Amino acid sequence: MINKIDGLTSKEVYMSYNRYGANKIEMKKKISPIKIFLDQFGDFMVLILLASTAISLFMGDILEGVTIISIVVVNAILGFIQEFRTERTIEKLGKLASPHGTVIRDGKVIVIDAQDVVVGDVILLEAGDRVPADGYIIDETDLKVDESLLSGESCAVQKIVAKNDKNKDVCRVYMGTLVKNGCGKVVVDKVGMETSMGKIANMIQNVEDDFTPLQKRLESLGKFIVLICVGICLVVALTGILRGEPVMDMLISGITLAVAAVPEGLPAVVTIALAIGVSRMVKKSALVKKLPSVETLGCATVICSDKTGTITKNMMDVRRIYINNKSINVDGVKGIDINKLSKALKIGVLCNNVRISNNELIGDATEIALIKVYQKFLNDYDTFINSKNRIKEIPFSSERKCMSVLYDDNVIYTKGAPEVILDKSSKILLEGEEVALTSSIKARVLMENKKMANNALRVIAVAYGKSYDGSVDEKNLTFVALMAMMDPPREGVLEAVNECRNAGIRTIMITGDNKETAIAIAKEVNILGKDDLAISGKELDALTEQELDNKIEHIAVFARVTSKHKLRIVGALKNKGEIVAMTGDGVNDAPAIKEADIGISMGITGTDVSKEAASMILMDDNFSTIVHAVEEGRVIYSNIRKFIRYMLACNIGEVLSMFLAILAGLPFPLVPIQILWVNLATDGLPAIALGLEPMEMGIMNSPPKKDSRNIFSDGLLKMIFVRGLIIGVTTLAVFYTIVTITNDIDRARTGAFMTLVITQLIHVLECKSEKKSFIKINLLNNKFLLLSIFISMAMMLIVVYIPNLQSIFKTVYMSASDWCIVLGFSLLGPVSAGISSMFVKTSGAHKKI
Fold it and tell me: For the whole prediction, is pTM greater than 0.90?
């Protein structure tokens, strides 16, 4: 069927397409806009609010019902807009990454879309091309392919012609990989989902989606609130009935309190807080696909990061040069005698096949590194290279392990494996003089080569020789230098890793590179500490599940791993209760990205498959951006806790003021319409504004909240009940004081009405911080909160001082003496708490002394 010279005929292309299908990766079915919108109503808290709406409408409270349903709809619209816009952005990113393929058909070379490549096609590859399908090599010239997106290896793989075994990795190329050097001719034998990339994409489909920590916590909170509401309704109604109160009045009061206990602003606050976090992340080059993902990252306890292209640049840089029997660090420029390096630098660029296209270096990563180090020290690259005329070349091969070129000055320039170049050399250049390469000097060079290799540096040697008859004779060369290079860490990664460490977040490097290279990089960016372990994929295979569980907390580096290994690692971490973030860009990363609590794909180098699997995309491929996302997530989680603290404490205060009145044999201090109006005034704008609180200092200096922990952890539940009790008792105390003095129940209820609101608005300021007392909190750094307090107070005052509204809300005009009683009791709680906290801290300080 295959003509290796002419390629397929048009008929054969048609037959192959019908048999094997299109050459494309089948992505998960797109979610329709309608389904995205309807999914916003599936949250447990939203269902509670819808039930509250039904109760409010049943009771005839149209205003309350409309308010709640408006909040639900706005919440759904905000969530829909974010997810819909992100889906469209993902599609655009996918289109930008769509490759083409150069094939031979009917004896002609043509360029087609990659998805039109079929089994049997003969494709032509050259440096800079992305391989459009899997196939075996039938011809090549120094063909090197970057397979990092599949294997995680940072170095390009040397390819050879397939002879007896077409399935050997060195004889094959794979869809999506990048040709870094040379050229080749390949016969396609696998397309679409049958390719290596397709099989990994298919693996992703078997990973089930899981709820985020935020969704789990809110669902738990919703169930808790349902139980509270039902309990409130029953206790209040039964207690009142047993006291002889009218049954219908007690049922209405019980239901009113139950509705008031539901924090209807919670979904809106959560959505707004998440949306603000997302907008901040977009400005910092992070695209969030779903709102809860930002909060999830804020709760992350482990970040599993791919090395190549994420922690490192995915490009080689020359780090050290061994020349004149000295090892020179070339990371910097100062203090280096460039004249002593110039010979080695010139050989590196002359014995080189990198080409420049649109000011971009295209070719093998090693050869690009040699160009870059030349340009770093010498600024005449274009002039120098144009002044030379290459005559002949013996290309690099895996058998020869070296490359040589001859120029018109009759000088041979050679580079290759150090031991090979040394064997071909009889002299060495020392301080500009050619001297004999003795066995002792050779041993010293080999020792330096071993030392560099042990530090995970990739080492090549450069040499030169003389051609007397126009031939390229690789004998009696003059050895010049060893040039050691490494794929360097990205800028800012060290700082990002250290910040994660300070925040109680482990960073684990997972890579396909060899163990020594991984260890060297991990140490450089402080991922691998003194007591941490590094293991290879082979060592991982030897561990049982129990052994892995016992060791996983101490392993910081996994090297030479496959996509299956990555899945196992993420699964083991999740089994230990960790909240796992997984970064990556390759197809091999996608299954683990999908399995992680939050998957993070690279936006520039990331494949379509990894982007589809991810929850968040780093548009600048910068590991440091993750730290900003963690920070935003923690701010969001902190603000949600502040809102819950405020809302539940206030609602408990409302309930207790009524319940304690029943127990004390007093009339209700508030009527149902007043409770609903308080709920509307204080549960709305102040609560939402509290969700907009700026970041508190030191938020990245505490450990993350683990998935297993309750949202009421760290004493939050105690703070809620204590403050709720103070609000309830204060309200009842004002009611009792005024009714005792004046014997006017409407006046007493008006006082209680205002007390309930003022204590709640004071408490919203207390909730700005869980660590600071009221008198130490910065009260002016959230203008939205101050404005919301002003609006809420205005809402309360109009129903007290406008006569037409007084009759509706059962209020009366408040005198100066009434205000003194209200303000006196309202300020008593927070002032006492502030003084008490200062006393406790002072006592603690004395004890330490």
Answer: no
Question: pLDDT tens across 658-701, in order?
Answer: 878 877 878 889 887 788 788 778 877 888 888 788 888 888 88
What tokens were used for 296? 């999830």
Weakest mean pLDDT among 100-104, 194-198, 235-239, 618-622: 235-239
Strand 506-510 to 302-306 pairing: parallel
CA distances from 115 to 99, 315, 558 (A): 9, 29, 35
Q: How far apart (Å, rounded) are the C-alpha atoms in residues 461 and 482?
A: 4
Q: Which two tokens stand for residue 562?
A: 């496959």
Mean pLDDT of the chain: 82
H or E, element range at 560: none
Tell which wins on pLDDT, 256 or 780. 780
Joined tokens for residue 801: 């001082």
Phi, psi dihedrals of residue 776, rounded to the nearest 5°: -110, -5
27-53 pLDDT, tens digit per residue, is: 555 566 777 677 766 655 566 656 666
Cα 572–578–582 angle (5° rounding)?
Answer: 75
pLDDT at 97: 40
Core vs surface per residue 449-467: b (16+ CB within 10 A) or e: beebeebbbbbbbbbbbeb
Query: Residue 113 and residue 465: Cα distance in Å, rounded?
Result: 46
- Residue in 587, 621, 457 with CA at minimum distance from that of residue 512: 587
Which amino acid is located at 825 in the chain?
A: F
| 3-class SS of residue 295 | helix
Q: Tell me the C-alpha distance between 85 and 263, whole Å.
A: 29
Of 88, 87, 118, give the one whose Cα is nearest residue 105. Answer: 118
Residues 6+ apart with CB under 8 A from 766: 723, 774, 777, 830, 833
Mark 349-370 as b/e (b = at least 16 C-beta within 10 Å): bbbbbbeeeeeebbbbbbbbbb
Output phi, psi for 176, to 5 deg. 90, -15
Residue corresponding to tokens 């969700």: 691
* Residue reference for tokens 């290759």: 416
Give me 700's structure tokens: 């990245």
pLDDT band at 84 (very low <50, low <70, confident <90, very high): low
List the alpha helices (DSSP H) in 59-191. 62-96, 148-151
Average pLDDT over residues 595-611: 81
Predicted confidence at residue 654, as pLDDT, reads 85
Rg (CA), the chain: 35
How far apart are the C-alpha atoms of 629 and 281, rounded to whole Å? 7
Q: How confident is the model at residue 846 (pLDDT cuts 50, 70, 90)?
A: very low
Q: Higher pLDDT residue, 503 or 705?
A: 503
Burial (CB count within 10 angstroms: exposed 0-12, middle 13-18, buried 19+), residue 113: middle
| Whole-number Å distance between alpha carbons of 765 and 785 | 8
Helices (H) and strands (E) in the chain, counts: 30, 26
pLDDT exceeds 90 at position 439: yes
Torsion sign (Cα): 784, 787, 789, 795: negative
Judge contact between 120 and 3, C-beta under 8 A.
Answer: no
For 169, counting Cβ atoms within 10 Å of its Cβ (0-12 exposed, 13-18 middle, 19+ buried), the class is: exposed
What are the residue numbers of the active site? 306
Residue 477 in tokens:
């060369």
Q: Distance (Å, rounded) from C-alpha 726 to C-alpha 837?
A: 16
Is residue 735 within 8 A of residue 751, CB to CB? The reply is yes
Instruction: 550-556: list long-range contacts, CB under 8 Å, 24+ apart.
Output: 552/576, 555/508, 556/506, 556/507, 556/508, 556/509, 556/522, 556/527, 556/528, 556/529, 556/532
Cβ-in-10-Å burial (0-12, 13-18, 19+) of 551 comes to middle
Tell me what pLDDT residue 769 has. Answer: 87
User: Per-residue confidence at 757, pLDDT binned at 50, 70, 90?
Assistant: very high
Question: Which residue, 581, 588, 107, is CA-closest to 300?
Answer: 581
803: left (phi over 0), alpha (psi -120 to 50) or beta: alpha
Would you say how long the chain is, in residues?
A: 849
% the chain with pLDDT above 70? 80
